[in-house]
Amino acid sequence: MLSFLAVDAIYRCSKSGWITEDLFLEWLKHFAQYVNVSTVDPVLVILDNHATHSSLKSYKFCRENGIVLVSLPPHNSHRLQPLDVTFFSSLKTAYSKECDIHIMKTHHYSKIKVTDIAELFAKAYNRITSKEKGLNGFKNTGIFPLDRNLFGEEEFTEMSVEATVGANSDIEAWN
Questions:
Q1: What backbone phi and psi angles, to 5 degrees, belong to 61?
Q2: 64 close to 32: Cβ distance less than 8 angstroms
Q3: Cis-peptide into 145, omega within 30 deg
Q4: pLDDT over 90 for what percent of the chain?
Q5: How many CA atoms lie within 13 A of 132 on its CB side?
Q6: What span, in angstroms and rounded, lies between the C-alpha atoms of 122 and 98?
Q7: I need a surface site. Which of 1, 103, 163, 164 has the fewest CB within 10 A?
Q8: What element of type H or E holds 122?
Q9: Which run of H or of E encompasses 163?
Q10: Cβ–Cβ under 8 Å, residues 46 and 143
Q11: CB count, 10 Å around CB of 79?
């Protein structure tokens, strides 16, 4: 194994580059091994509402193993997803810096090879990851400690049919 990779982590990729139902289920199984989850002592997993998170196989696995999945409202992960709020921006900046350093070290303006990506990512990840950043993600989203007043209700109202299909649509609004 490459020395810069975390020993207990799993590394997977789909042909499309996007998560699939099978990859998500594999991740759930791996996750369950490391958090000592059980139906007696369940854990909460907060997710965006991507379709791959709602397969029947994943649902059954979670139900049988004490994993409670909570899906965030659509189009709100930038407010409610702890990783989006405190982690991904820093990671993107750190990864960009690692790529710049790599390019400068490898004869200026050479292309980054696919085989270099994992190491560059690991360097960036290890540089910016901290317990404080993780805790702040939950605090800044109002998840923990719970802060019901962090966002106003108007920020989470349901979309009207008119807004969804457009004002000039032939479909009548359901009221």
A1: -60, -45
A2: no
A3: yes
A4: 60
A5: 1
A6: 10
A7: 1
A8: helix 114-128
A9: helix 161-165
A10: yes
A11: 17
Which alpha helices (DSSP H) does 6-108 contain, by range?
A: 21-34, 56-65, 77-80, 82-86, 88-105
- Of 85, 62, 75, the C-alpha closest to 137 is 85
Contact (Cβ atoms closer than 8 angstroms) between residue 103 and residue 110: yes
Exposure string for 150-173, b = 16+ CB within 10 A, e = fewer: eeeeeeeeeeeeeeeeeeeeeeee
3-state secondary structure of 54: helix
If you search the block for the tokens 């994993």, which residue do you land on?
67
Measured CA to CA, the distance from residue 81 to residue 137 in angstroms comes to 8
CA distance linking residue 129 with residue 149, whole number of Å: 28
The top-scoring range by mean pLDDT among 8-12, 40-44, 159-163 is 40-44
Residue 115 confidence (pLDDT): 87
**What pLDDT score was predicted for residue 74?**
82
The pairing of strands 43-47 and 67-71 is parallel
Q: Which H or E run contains 71? A: strand 67-71
Encoded amino acid at 99, one letter: C
pLDDT tens digits, one per residue of 60-119: 999 999 999 999 888 888 899 999 999 999 999 999 999 999 998 887 667 898 889 989
